[in-house]
Amino acid sequence: LNQDRELTFEEFTIVLAKLTDDAHRISHGDDRLQLLLFQTPQTREQRSELEKAMDIIIDVFHQYSRREGNRDTLTKKELKLLIEQQLVNYLKLVKDRATIDEIMKDLDINKDAQISFSEVMLLITRVTIAAHEYLHHIEDQQQQQQQQQHLKHQH
Fold it and tell me: What is the mean pLDDT of residues 128-137?
């Protein structure tokens, strides 16, 4: 994004979100293409870890989007359930209705009171970036503690 010819983790997740959104669109498109790309056992077995992760994201989205209303968007109730069951460890504090309403409002770019797959990818991207930053923060803290302990033992 910043034209430096290198991908930061944030830029990487944005690219991955776009690719996953494209894969989701393809999965709803031409039946022959869908069969070729998504349904043959040989292809699934040959997929890379990232491709398998993309498949899982699409599958999880559909587990919730097909519960009520449009089968390819999330209602507020479906979004709340997805957050509570699938992002339970990353979004521990998101329990109250006001927070869910705020997330829904933030994600619902086209203001149709439904969350599309690409809109959910915004949430997943943001949570992934935050988790990545948190892991680095924890790693930095551990290194500081190790350095402090090492200095104590030297004196």
Answer: 84
